[in-house]
Amino acid sequence: MARVGYRTEFLLTPTVVDADAIRDTRVESRRCLFHDEGEGEETSGIFRWYSQAGCFTECMLDHARETCHCVPWDVPFADGDGNNGNNFPICSSYGYYCFNEAMKNTTHRGVRCGGCLPDCNVVDYHVTTTSTPIDPETECGPGKVPQIIND
Question: What are the distances in angstroms from CA 82 to CA 46, 79, 92, 125?
Fold first, then answer.
């Protein structure tokens, strides 16, 4: 977190996991999916490309929709045909509450979302933060430090 009176620098270090060499290996053996492979049970069509995070999100949305028997007006459509997931009605205020509670209570690592395989190609970022106090005399020059006037 950046603080007043400090110079804060952020260093992002990417780590790339590139599994293109195993693309021809069967999914069952490699246990991961490439972004262009997520069709069928792994995705219901909200996201254009497969990712494990997107799969978890779609799974959680499906669970909430099935639990509450409705879809909030501000939730993306669940299929590519413009239907809100098998023509579920738009949620009432209670249905909206039910949907949000169901989303909070869904654990995406549970049995319901077991088909969400990891991404084969991933870029992870490690963040390193350093903070050093700012010396106004050094930054502004001798005698040029602004004075704060409190009325």
Answer: 10, 6, 20, 35
In the CATH scheme, what is the code of domain 32-119? 1.10.287
As a whole number of angstroms, the distance between CA 32 and CA 42 comes to 11
pLDDT in tens, 15-60: 988 888 899 999 889 989 998 886 654 445 678 888 888 888 888 8
pTM passes above 0.85: no
**Sequence spans of domains, the chain:** 1-18+121-151, 32-119
Instruction: Name residues whose C-beta falls within 8 Å of residue 42's C-beta, 6 or more positions apart in sequence.
Output: 33, 50, 55, 115, 116, 117
